[in-house]
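Lab notebook: predicted structure, single chain.

Context: the supervisor wants predicted structures on file for every construct in the current expression panel, including those that have not yet been purified. This is the next one on the list. No modifications to the sequence; it matches the entry in the shared construct table.
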Amino acid sequence: QLQASGGGLVQPGGSLRLSCVASGFTLDYYVIGWFRQAPEKERESVSCISYSDGITDYADSVKGRFTISRDNAKNTVYLQMNDLKPEDTAVYYCAIDPRLTIVRGTTGQPVDCNDPAFASWGQGTQVTVSS
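Prediction complete. Output recorded below exactly as produced.
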């Protein structure tokens, strides 16, 4: 199970750090993704990370502003969001590609944040960027 947290209300230009904590299993050899859904819009991928080797990818809209990272000791993935804009307002979710990279043989290869295999969405965390 994944649990996202860390959202809130922030002014444009501000920062937030979201956390995605896994319980009941280790994140090793999985790809973890952050996604968001704004009102009346489709869910979109934001960023993802291969937990075992740290390979990352980002949506063009957040490159240079958001950073995804992981903490092996805490079994947690973070999304550091800087220079937030009103268009970043959305509910943010974390999800997991349930296919182990070591089994698929994709360890060390680029990650695909738009892979339809992402699942286990859980409850999201609201991020509101407004003055």
